[in-house]
């Protein structure tokens, strides 16, 4: 089992602190031994990819999101099943990344 994580997250206001805490939680969770080994379960199903965890991703996850999207498109092209939960997670992740890129551009 992964070691317990107890970290204080600060932001300029409560909204930023919450966002940073959620991004940090997603990072810690998806890099845990349980997730990597396939033993992390959500709603009695194994979490197979980071999008099933449904936590915000940091901007450095853009490359990973694009790889996941590419894999999903390949599955669709081969007429293989792609879970709707995964598609919703991809849509949300890409929307969040696009918003972050727009904020950084201005």
Q: How does this model look, in words?
A:
The chain has one domain (14-105). A hairpin with a 2-residue loop joins β1 (41-42) and β2 (45-46). The chain has helices at residues 14-30, 33-36, 62-77, 84-105, and strands spanning 41-42, 45-46. It has a two-stranded antiparallel ribbon. The chain is mostly helical. The model has no long low-confidence stretch (mean pLDDT 78).
Properties at a glance:
single chain; 106 residues; mainly alpha; two-stranded antiparallel sheet; 2 strands; 56% helix; flat
Which helices and strands, and how do they pair?
Elements: H1 14-30, H2 33-36, E1 41-42, E2 45-46, H3 62-77, H4 84-105
Antiparallel strand pairs: 1-2
Helix pairs in contact: 3-4
Mean pLDDT: 78
| Structural class based on helices, strands and sheet pairing | mainly alpha
How would you sum up the major sheet? 2 strands, antiparallel
With helices defined by DSSP (H or I, 4 residues minimum), what is the helix count?
Answer: 4
Helix content: 55-70%
Question: How much of the residues is beta strand, in percent?
Answer: under 5%
Q: Which series of helices and strands comes N to C?
A: HHEEHH
Shape: flat
Number of strands: 2
Question: Terminal Cα separation, in Å?
Answer: 43 Å
Short structural summary:
This protein is 56% helix and 4% strand. The protein is mainly α.
């Amino acid at each position: 089992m992964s070691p317990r994580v107890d970290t204080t997250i600060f932001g300029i206001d409560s909204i930023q602190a919450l966002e940073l805490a959620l991004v940090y939680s997603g990072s810690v969770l998806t890099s845990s031994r349980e997730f990597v080994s396939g033993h992390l379960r959500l709603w009695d199903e194994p979490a197979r990819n980071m999008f099933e965890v449904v936590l915000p991703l940091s901007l450095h996850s853009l490359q990973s999101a694009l790889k996941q999207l590419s894999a999903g498109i390949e599955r669709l092209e081969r007429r293989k099943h792609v879970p709707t939960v995964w598609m919703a997670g991809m849509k949300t992740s890409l929307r969040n990344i696009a918003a972050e890129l727009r904020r950084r551009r201005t």
